[in-house]
Amino acid sequence: MVQEQFKVVNYLANSFVVVEGKRNADNFYIIRQGKVKIVKENPVAQESNQLLGPGDFFGVIPCMSGHAHIEGAVAMTNVSLISVQRDQFGILIQKNPAVAMKIIRFFSRKLREFDQAITRLTFANAVEEDPEHLFNIGQYYLKKKNLPHAAYALQRYIQHCAGGINRDKAIAHLKSINAPFKVPENPQKNSLTRVYKDNQMIFCENEPGDELYIIQGGKVKITKIVDEEVLLAVLKPGDIFGEMALLENRPRSASAITFGDTSLMAINRQNFETMVQTQPQLATRLIQLLSERIWTAYRQLENLMIRDPLGRMYDTLLIQVEKQKIRITPKESYTFDFGVKELLNMVGISHDKGDYLVVELLEDKNMTLDEGKLICTNLEELEKTVNFYKKKSALERKREASKNS
Fold first, then answer.
1. CATH class in words for 307-404
2. Contact 288, 61 (CB under 8 A)
3. Burial class of 38 by CB neighbour count within 10 A (0 to 12, 13 to 18, 19+)
4. pTM exceeds cut of 0.85
5. Thinking of the domain 2-87, which architecture would CATH place it in?
6. Could you tell me the residue ranges of all domains in the chain?
7. Which tens digit of pLDDT belongs to each residue from 96-140?
8. Beta bridge partners of 262
9. How far does Cα 62 stand from its chain's mean position?
10. Of 394, 108, 339, 308, which is closest to residue 320 (Cα–Cα)?
11. What is the DSSP string of 307-349?
12. CATH architecture for the domain at 133-301
């Protein structure tokens, strides 16, 4: 039993187990008995308070990522909890791999929900999961004269949409570039190790997937076509990608393209659970990465929920500090490695519209500019300013909701 290996703690009904915003979490909880409600002061997207029971867990994201708690937890009844320290996670996986699988699957669903919400809020023309979109991706790359990527997307379209409305057009496009109608058989298909050349497509957005990958060498670009090709991330050795399609049996949410010659370890659905049980260090690494990515996606969503563009600028600065896991204290100074133009780009504000915002930002006594780099001279004041803008936006949304109800 899990509880025989770890400390058991008890809380009375109506007491806080976890406080939102608390830092330095080095443990998480699995519920033995009772009910716990997950609460958030300002929920993002369509989130609502969750009620958890025996076998459920909470607090994993801050524990495994090293960031502050993004939600609180209140005991709704008297509860008995198993407390798992960060350095005990490998033992937990070995003793009870089903718990690790439950955490990984939950994280994967949560990350996809956040990613979809971010895409909807950021890109008005984003396409929902649909294999038919493979044809559009093929056409996009044709126009850009990127024939290998165009061929891959069109071949996958024919493969997965045999009765698709654009099948004849896809075949005509492939004929025009002298490409085969089928994706050439990968000679490495049955090997755990895969080697790719530079700028080679590993998988395409919206195609089905049944493998996740661990980068052994080289880099991988994660991209999405939304009118234009958008670069979402550049992954490096040790990073894991492709897990959401494998765990949820859903289409790929983005494309993965090599950035230089690259070698990968491929793990399919059949051997994934075996890997979790026999190689707890890999499962721990996957959960750490998912925790970090969920935290990042959550903070992106929080940022997008701030209505005042100046507030979003302040919050973008705070996110950069939090990513470095820097302790926020009074009069603690921090020099950013970018200036005002880069900040406007990060928030998605044009330089024309952003000039007055930059002036307003630099009128703040805690913000200065030195040799083109932004400097915050008091991180605690930066955090207070961000909280002000978050609460202001939350109040505006509540007022609007009450008017419409």
1. mainly alpha
2. no
3. buried
4. no
5. Sandwich (2.60)
6. 2-87, 133-301, 307-404
7. 888 888 888 888 888 888 887 887 777 655 556 778 899 999 999
8. 196
9. 14
10. 339
11. -SHHHHHHHHHHHHHHHTT----TT--EE-SS-HHHHHHHHT-
12. Sandwich (2.60)
